[in-house]
Amino acid sequence: MRSPAVSVLMPVHNGAPFLLEALDSVLSQGFTDLELVVVDDASDDSTATILDAVEDPRLRRLRLEQRTRAPGALNAGLEVCRAPLVARLDADDRCLAGRIERQVETMERRPDLVGLGTSAVLIDSGGRPIGRRNVTTGSAAVLRRLRWRNALISSSVMFRREVVSALGGYSLVVKRSEDYELWLRLAAEGELDNLGECLIAYRVHPDQNSSTKINNPATRSGIGKARKAVARSRGESERLAAWRQWVWVEAQRWGDLRRR
User: Fold this and answer.
1) pTM of the predicted model, to two decimals?
2) pLDDT at residue 167, rounded to an integer
3) How many CB atoms lie under 10 A from the CB of residue 19?
4) How many CB atoms are located within 10 Å of the residue 46 CB?
5) Which CATH number goes with the domain that contains 155?
6) What's the total number of domains in the chain?
């Protein structure tokens, strides 16, 4: 069987309220040479029923009987993705028209890129637009921002599967910031960039799992090591990377205090 050009990787746990919208947004893309790999992370709602009703042969399902949470589900999905390019999408978000095509064009034109994100339209629980999240563009500017904080919207990112797989995929010990930690490790391997266009709809709702709390020592350690790896790859001082890490930790801690 010929491998598709793109694997869209979507983990889901009890995602019934928004899952059908997410699925349709992928399978209705003008770029059709893709597979949609959905990892059902031990859902006990109607997620399985919704997936059963999809007749598109491009949908590939992987069911995990025990809950692993996002990093484990993503790694399980990566193992079955067949395409050289993997596009991430969360089960409560939507691809906008032309998303896959625009990212594929850019990745093919720029072989230096290992990952590419986009800006996003913000939507509420009912799918109504409520704003926009603009991202930094230009690989040099993205790297500058990434040294201090996350610079990519996880659900918008397309990356080269072989590079991420060689890095071991998502960390299982970094809690809540596994995407940021992976982007830092990717930045030590090649260039990251963003398209300024809004190519996904990012849903803002009370049940979303987007906390940035870093009270787990393994999280702080993992991100700190990734920061130093980026510094080494760019011929920069690891002491400077350590100082940036301290600033980031303090900023996250103060943010957590303000939210309490």
Assistant:
1) 0.93
2) 97
3) 23
4) 14
5) 3.90.550.10
6) 1
